[in-house]
Amino acid sequence: MRPIHIAELGAKPRPVLVLTRDIARTVLNTVTVAPITSIVRGIPTEVRLDSTNGLDHDCVALLDKITTIPSAALGRRVGHLHPGQEQHLTDAVRAAFELK
């Protein structure tokens, strides 16, 4: 399951969905993440998340804003993506990068 962590992305800590695979995280000093926001636009590049994912309220992971950050910027783990949401993640990445 893909973890959700709090990360230092700027002015204040924000939740992020970690996209880097677990085995790579053990050897890399960076991780690729999708920021999470409570502003839901209802577009194909978003993955809906809620309290069942460990978050305080309904939000979305923004797959059109994928970024790579230092591993040290990751804070505590707060939740995870459920296996049933992996297809939504795949669809959102495809939409963000116009993949077939």
Task: Kindly list the characteristics that best describe this protein.
alpha+beta; SH3 type barrels; 2 helices; 7 strands; 16% helix; hydrolase
CATH topology: SH3 type barrels
Please state the second-level CATH architecture.
Answer: Roll
* Top-tier CATH class: Mainly Beta
Helix count, DSSP H or I runs of 4 or more residues: 2
| Structural class by helix and strand composition | alpha+beta
As for the number of domains, it is 1
Give the helices and strands as they follow along the chain.
EEHEEEEEH
Q: Please state the average pLDDT score.
A: 96
Cα-based radius of gyration, to the nearest Å? 13 Å
Helix content: 10-25%
In whole angstroms, how far apart are the ends? 24 Å
What's the number of extended β-strand segments? Answer: 7
Outline type: globular
Q: Main beta sheet: strand number and arrangement?
A: 7 strands, antiparallel
Low-confidence stretches: none
Beta-strand proportion = 35-45%
Layout of secondary structure:
Blueprint lengths: L2 E6 L4 E6 L3 H4 L4 E8 L8 E4 L9 E4 L4 E4 L3 E7 L5 H12 L3
Antiparallel strand pairs: 1-2, 1-7, 2-3, 3-5, 3-6, 4-5
